[in-house]
């Protein structure tokens, strides 16, 4: 059975009409009014990823980031609790922190020096006599966002009535647990990050992290630049066991290397890649063979991309975080991760950073090619906003897996259908 999607424009009176089961309107990338609605209906209601716990290693540590377009500071307060505070002074609205990350006792607004604690409480107001009888400090904390964590991933929401984070993540939790196994027996920590902007809509990026179909086309030069074992590992186009599951709530997981999905499931038959021979030798001086095998087998991460709607993907061996700036402007952060263990693992993390740079770095063989594709989608889609963007690949071969998740081949557009299903639900919520 086939559905004709060739000439059918996607229009309708409401935002929800612009998303169908097999196609979405091109204007989803170009319409500024839709973008404004997305900011209030999606980014001010959903749980948005803001940090990894390793970025806040002790009381007083903080990072600045955004929830949608709202600037926030994520802090660890004196009691060790992680807080997300709106980066906006309660006096006349100035931002109280402009540092990307650091350690502080609190935040003092540069305009009139109102000072706030790490928990957001207003502590001091200069020349307080003018406020006699008109100001209660306890009523003027920095606005606190609900903040919850799972598996080291910290999320915040502007919606006081949002469902609990664990409900929001649902069946994606198992995959977060699996992703963190790439610590090879140690917790995972952030090694570094780089940030870039592309002139396109945030959903083009969201789609890309669940787009297995583009891999051998766009990443031909990366495939040609790596050793044969790595190229073979990423040859999933005709592997029937490589699948994508729709996990519900807009989340999905694309398994490119199914043998690495659960790194604890290791029968010892898979040889370690020859490219890591030197590393194995170095580590073997201090670690036992089982520990060496565990960290080296996890060098490329878990071989799956877990897409969490709306703003973060746990992608193979890094986090990819998106921030919508305008309908045609998105900031992407690539956050490299590795095991947080004894100093002998420094060599592992150096090697992981080199692999990361090779694909994801600004001069890498992967991301710059992706970015060219995203720019072109934005330019092309502007040509005819009502023409459909197709998301129907593999819909006729999609089946429920043992857990009831719609599942199709890793090259199919199951993950995009999952994300747009959630988009439609949230955008249609009047
Ligand atoms: S705006 Fe912050 S102290 Fe005045
Ligand atoms: Fe790509």
Automatic annotation (TrEMBL):
Alphabetical list of Pfam families matching this protein: Rieske (PF00355), Ring_hydroxyl_A (PF00848)
InterPro entries linked to this entry: ARHD_Rieske_2Fe_2S, Rieske_2Fe-2S, Rieske_2Fe-2S_sf, Ring_hydroxy_dOase_asu_C_dom, Rng_hydr_dOase-A
Annotated transmembrane regions: none
Gene3D superfamilies, alphabetized: Naphthalene 1,2-dioxygenase Alpha Subunit, Chain A, domain 1, Rieske [2Fe-2S] iron-sulphur domain
Names of the cofactor(s): Fe cation
Sorted UniProt keywords: 2Fe-2S, Dioxygenase, Iron, Iron-sulfur, Metal-binding, NAD, Oxidoreductase
Leader peptide range in chain numbering: none
Domain annotation Rieske: ranges: 47-156
A single GO molecular function term of this UniProt record: 2 iron, 2 sulfur cluster binding
Family annotation (PANTHER family): CHOLINE MONOOXYGENASE, CHLOROPLASTIC
Full protein name: Phenylpropionate dioxygenase-like ring-hydroxylating dioxygenase large terminal subunit
Species of origin: Pseudonocardia alni
């Amino acid at each position: 059975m086939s559905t004709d999607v060739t000439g059918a424009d996607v229009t309708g009176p409401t935002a929800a009409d612009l998303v169908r089961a097999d196609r979405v309107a091109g204007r989803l990338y170009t319409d500024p009014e839709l973008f404004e609605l997305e900011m209030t209906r999606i980014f001010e209601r959903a749980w948005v990823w803001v940090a990894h716990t390793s970025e806040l290693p002790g009381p007083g540590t903080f990072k600045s980031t955004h929830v949608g377009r709202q600037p926030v500071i994520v802090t660890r307060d004196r009691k060790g609790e992680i807080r997300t505070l709106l980066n906006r002074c309660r006096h006349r609205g100035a931002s109280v922190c402009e540092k990307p990350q650091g350690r502080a006792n609190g935040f003092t607004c540069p305009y009139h020096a109102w000072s706030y604690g790490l928990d957001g409480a207003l502590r001091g107001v200069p020349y307080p006599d003018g406020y006699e009888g008109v100001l209660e400090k306890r009523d003027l904390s920095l606005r606190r966002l609900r903040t919850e964590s799972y598996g080291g991933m910290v999320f915040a929401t502007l919606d006081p009535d949002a469902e609990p984070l664990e409900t929001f993540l649902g069946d994606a939790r198992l995959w977060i647990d699996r992703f963190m196994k790439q610590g090879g027996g140690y917790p995972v920590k952030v090694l570094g990050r780089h940030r870039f902007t592309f002139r396109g809509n945030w959903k083009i990026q969201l789609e890309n992290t669940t787009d297995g179909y583009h891999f051998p086309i766009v990443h031909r030069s990366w495939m040609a630049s790596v050793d044969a074992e790595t190229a073979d590992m990423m040859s999933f186009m005709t592997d029937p066991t490589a699948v994508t599951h729709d996990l519900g709530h807009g989340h999905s997981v694309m398994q490119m290397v199914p043998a690495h999905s659960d790194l604890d499931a290791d029968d010892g038959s898979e040889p370690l890649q020859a490219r890591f021979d030197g590393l194995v030798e170095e580590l073997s001086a201090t670690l036992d063979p089982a520990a060496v095998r565990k960290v080296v087998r996890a060098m490329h991460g878990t071989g799956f991309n877990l897409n969490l709607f709306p703003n973060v993907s746990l992608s193979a061996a890094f986090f990819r975080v998106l921030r919508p700036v305008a309908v045609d402007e998105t900031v992407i952060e690539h956050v490299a991760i590795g095991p947080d263990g004894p100093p002998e693992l420094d060599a592992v993390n150096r090697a992981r950073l080199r692999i990361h740079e090779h694909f994801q770095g600004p001069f890498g063989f992967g991301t710059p090619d992706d970015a060219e594709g995203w720019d072109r989608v934005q330019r092309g889609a502007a040509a005819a906003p009502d023409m459909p963007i197709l998301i129907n690949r593999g819909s006729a071969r999609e089946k429920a897996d043992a857990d009831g998740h719609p599942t199709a081949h890793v090259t199919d557009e199951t993950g995009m259908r999952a994300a747009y299903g959630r988009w439609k639900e949230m955008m249609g919520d009047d």
